[in-house]
Amino acid sequence: MNQFSELVNKQQQFFKRNHTKSIAFRIEQLKKLKHVIQSHETLLNDAIKKDFHKSEFDTYSNELGLIYHDINEAIKKVKRWSRIKRVRTNLVNFPAKSYIIPEPLGVSLVIGAWNYPYQLSFAPVVAAMAAGCTIILKPSELPIHTSQIMQQIVRDNFSEDYFAVVEGGIEETTALLKQRFDKIFFTGSTKVGRIVYEAAAKNLTPVTLELGGKSPVFVTESCNLKMTARRLVWAKFLNAGQTCIAPDYAIVHEKIHDQFLEAVVTEIKKSDYKLSNNNYVQIINQRNFDRLTKLIQSEQVYFGGTCHPEDRTIEPTILKGIRFEDPIMQEEIFGPILPVIAYKNIQDAIDYVKSGEKPLSCYIYSSNRKEIKQVLNEVSFGGGCVNESIMHITNSKLPFGGVGASGIGSYHGEAGFNTFSHFKSILDKPTWFELSLKYSPLTKRKLDFVKKLL
Ligand code: NAD
């Protein structure tokens, strides 16, 4: 027993009453969630601005807008996703029929990360609602204002036996993880992902782990340099680099290395990513600010490098002359610093990436289909883009998730529905006919026939 036993128990009781199995109920809750978020947009914008200075434009385009899109899609497609699926029956079971019934897993726990606090909390909630689960959401405690506002608007509008927000950090999450859930969906670091996985194993609870890692960018000799720099700069410095699928470092062909650096700087100068810009995103807290500033070695700075402790901002920074053994190459950067490494031979670059943990994302900028194919074929990673970065997340037809140390499972669109569902397989047989094959006497003739049949 702990402080969350009662809440989990209430949700278990509610789930058992089967209300969430009705498609009409799910659609009603999804519509309600959309209305609740929409009618509190001003408060949500204010909260995230207080937490790390995220602008209204960014909050809409990479948080709320994506949530609305997910909700609209779920409302439109939940009936289709939940349809019983007929499949072929094998001869040995004649005259039965076979079908698969999607069913909600039950009481789910969603643990969010801080860097896109609304999107990373509500997007899994949308998937859980569509699948018919009840939900306990534990947002990250670091952006304190966004956590509070999510708790408030959910508490005021949803019954806690169906959907509740629990606020807190390590202590509360540890207590929650002692409860028995039917599904745990976690977004965060690989380190904490391991803790969650271990806790889930005690109850054999299925998990989805959306984790992080160092996402590489291959920039080959044949790339469109201007477009590469434009797209890469946008993706790297969005949210001040605090994006799980941000390009972490660039490996660039030595022949275009210098031109690449110049093109990147030109794009940074053209962009809104400036310390003087009132909308430039802050580093989430002092600990991360200190960690990042230590990674900037002045002799490696090609551009930027200015850090403002008073408002925890770091200028878009490009580092050159980086070696694989440098400290910046040993951990996920998660900030506005782009190390650039030159390569001679694409195979060496690929081998380097393959020598580390499997990344969450990988990007290749090239117009050489052979090289593109080589990277896509050889490197194992969660998902990624060719001649683009980050934008694969916006296509809900592409399941989003990691592999190996960058995660387990995926979501968005139908993949999200599947993540919170169990697929129950049924063989349904009438009683008017029965083959005698499996019953005695088990003769040689029967065995010959079984051999043919199987
Ligand atoms: P984190 O792992 O520190 O925290 C995530 C959640 O776990 C928070 O809600 C936190 O309260 C909880 N938590 C922290 N320590 C815990 C512990 N010891 N026991 C139980 N719970 C604990 O991650 P973060 O700093 O919030 O996020 C950054 C990381 O998340 C990066 O590695 C990033 O790449 C990754 N991330 C991944 C995705 C994705 O979709 N794959 C999205 C965003 C962030």
Number of helices, where a helix is a run of at least 4 consecutive DSSP H or I residues: 15
Largest sheet: 7 strands, mixed
Question: β content, as a range?
Answer: 15-25%
The value of Rg in angstroms is: 25 Å
Kindly report the average pLDDT value: 97
Oligomer: single chain
Tell me the span between the first and last alpha carbons: 51 Å
Instruction: Give the names of the bound compounds.
Output: nicotinamide-adenine-dinucleotide
| Principal-axes shape call | globular
Helix content: 40-55%
Structural class: alpha/beta
What ranges have pLDDT less than 50 throughout 5 or more consecutive residues? none
Lateral arrangement of strands in the main beta sheet: 10-13-14-9-8-15-16
The total strand number stands at 18
Descriptive key words:
single chain, alpha/beta, 6-stranded mixed β-sheet, binds nicotinamide-adenine-dinucleotide
Verbal overview:
Helix content is 42%, strand content 17%. With 454 residues, the protein is α/β, with parallel strands linked by helices. Strands 10-13-14-9-8-15-16 form a 7-stranded mixed sheet. Strand 11 (307-308) and strand 12 (313-314) form a beta hairpin. Helix 2 packs antiparallel against helix 5. The termini are far apart. The relative contact order is 0.14.
Tell me briefly what this model is.
By secondary structure, this protein is α/β, with parallel strands linked by helices. Helix content is 42%, strand content 17%. The chain has 15 helices and 18 strands.
